[in-house]
TrEMBL record:
Residue stretches making up the Class II aldolase/adducin N-terminal domain: 20-193
SMART domains cross-referenced by the UniProt entry: Aldolase_II (SM01007)
InterPro entries noted in UniProt: Aldolase_class_II_sugar_metab, Aldolase_II/adducin_N, Aldolase_II/adducin_N_sf
Pfam families membership: Aldolase_II
PANTHER family noted in UniProt: 3-OXO-TETRONATE 4-PHOSPHATE DECARBOXYLASE-RELATED, FUCULOSE PHOSPHATE ALDOLASE
Protein's UniProt name: Class II aldolase/adducin family protein
Organism name: Halorubrum trueperi
Keywords annotated in UniProt: Lyase, Metal-binding
GO MF term set: lyase activity; metal ion binding
């Protein structure tokens, strides 16, 4: 049973857009994570639209998408929300990003099993910070895991974290950014592990990363209006 209340109704158009975004981007998880083990969400004010648990990523519609409060209370949606709601809401309450993607992508999860953070071996790491930290292990779906992830990301001022013996979480201003940056981190984990098999990878200095961050501020452009 769900409870439709003022939190879910405060921005009905934005919530509709958020639920539609979850439907649009959920299939991207199939490229990143095995089976049905990934999840993603979008924040609208004090409400969160999140993927449902245990279903194929292309098998639900916007009306099915669960909406929960920042305290984890189910507000709307035909389906049961992801078991990782505590991690999503914990990050939103602390850092207030617009979207979150969680995967068990193979290269990042390999890093997780090795208990390795991702150092700045390539300038594209600046998309999420100066490193991707390792969050201490805790059982999935728990407040303890949420606290560990929030602490790791806060300590390093990173928009991503590798979850020990688990997987990867990446945040962004919106789902498009969060999904794109998840691919960046996964690719960098692959690069790091391949380089490590040959020798010790060299890492960028703080000064070099600062220069990249400055250049990133003016990177990209919008197409001309027709």
């Amino acid at each position: 049973m769900t409870r439709e209340n003022s939190d879910a109704d405060a921005n009905p158009d934005l919530l509709r857009d958020a639920r539609e975004a979850v439907v649009e981007y959920a299939p991207a998880l199939a490229e990143l994570t095995p089976g049905r083990t990934g999840n993603l969400s979008v924040r609208v004010g004090d409400a969160v639209a999140v993927t449902p648990t245990g279903v194929a990523y292309d098998s639900f519609d916007a009306i099915d998408v669960p909406v929960v409060s920042l305290e984890g209370e189910r507000l709307a949606g035909r389906m049961v929300p992801s078991s990782e709601v505590p991690m999503h809401t914990g990050i939103y309450k602390h850092d207030r990003p617009g979207a979150i993607v969680h995967t068990h992508s193979p290269w990042a999860t390999t890093m997780a099993t090795l208990h390795r953070k991702l150092p700045p071996v390539h300038y594209m790491i600046a998309a999420v910070g100066r490193e991707v930290p390792l969050a201490d292990y805790a059982p999935y779906g728990t407040e303890e895991l949420a606290a560990n992830v929030v602490a790791a990301m806060a300590e390093t001022d990173s928009d991503a974290a590798i979850l020990a013996n688990h997987g990867l979480v990446v945040t962004g201003a919106d789902l498009e950014t969060a999904v794109e940056n998840t691919h960046h981190v996964e690719d960098l984990c692959r690069l790091y592990l391949r380089a490590s098999s040959v020798g010790e990878p060299h890492v960028l200095t703080d000064e070099q990363l600062a220069a990249v961050e400055e250049r990133f501020e003016s990177y990209g452009q919008q197409p001309d209006a027709k």
